Amino acid sequence: MGFLRDLRREFIARPDAYKAEILFKWPDTNIRRRSQVTVEQDEVAVFFRDGTVRGILQPGVSTLDSSEIPFLGDLVDSLTGGNYFKTELYFVSTREFANLPFGGMVDNVIDPETQLGVGLRVFGDYSLKVSAPDRLIVNLVGTRDLLSNDQITNWMRDQLLKVFRQEVVTHITAQAWPILGIAARNAEIEDEVIDGAGTALADYGLQVARMGNFTISIKPDDEEALKKYRRDVQYTKLAGSFQAAAAGEAMEGIGEGAAKGGGAGGAAVIGAGLNMGAGIVASSGSVQVKCLSCGTMNATTSRFCTNCGRALTGTEQTAGTP
Fold it and tell me: What is the pTM of this model?
């Protein structure tokens, strides 16, 4: 059994079952002198000990001997007579890992156009690449103990959301971007998120190569509230005042109710509708007459108050501009 164990240690390579992993840690920290290490073309081998990276092997087949690879001299285990190296060995992929999903709730922001609070969400995918294997091992693996693809990509997703939150919220606040229609700025936001992620991830030896299927959305209830606000604003502009717009909206509802059959209340509804209509006419005039009984403003051509029905004698107060 001892012979077989030593034979296994002579040939070191990433197992086929771990080819798709961003990194693979060799399970043994006692590596026999003159073992052969095979490093594939899309990876490097990183030797790590006592919190520091001692050396990196590039793609190819190497024989582990301090006479051929100088940095191995710092890893010799003297207790074994120099026959073994004491080190952690990581195989780190340098290829691009594409189509990694990310997304979630970003933040609640104030829409500059409406001053309403809106919940923003983002979804998409990105491509991840290791740019500095030594930083990855020291700052992410050594400090945060992240080894598996799931652990690394989950951490990456959180970082991307942080960057997105900072970039988008800053633009919405500083440049008064309206929330409705923000999807039109997707390309600009993607570029800035990639740049921001580059700065945030540099110390961890990672970079976002590209992003895709980038979608910014808002909660359905918030979207409906923003759209209703816009409709109300446009309607108010057309009607001339908020009061007239509200009356017009109410009349529209009355019309719909009448179309469906108002029953016994039809006369009262129609009367209310006529009263509102008179109010709209009154508000659109440049001069109005105030009823002495209820205070309602009426058009100067009105003979009776549109609210209480009292006769307008001509002695009432007038308001408006000639």
Answer: 0.66
DSSP H or E run through 277: helix 266-284
Range of the domain at 217: 97-222
Alpha carbon 45 to its chain centroid, in Å, reads: 35
Query: Of 41, 40, 37, 42, whose CA–CA distance to 55 is shortest?
Result: 37
CA distance 49 to 54: 7
Domains in the chain, number? 3
In the beta sheet, which residues pair with residue 60?
39
Residues 6 or more apart whose Cβ sits within 8 Å of residue 255: 273
93, 116, 141: which is the final residue of a domain?
93
> Does residue 211 share a domain with residue 312?
no
The residue among 166 and 18 whose pLDDT is bigger is 18
Q: Same structural domain for residues 34 and 132?
A: no
pLDDT tens-place string over residues 290-314: 888 888 887 777 777 777 777 777 6
Residue carrying the six token digits 């104030």: 110
Highest mean pLDDT out of 40-54, 98-112, 214-228, 266-280: 40-54
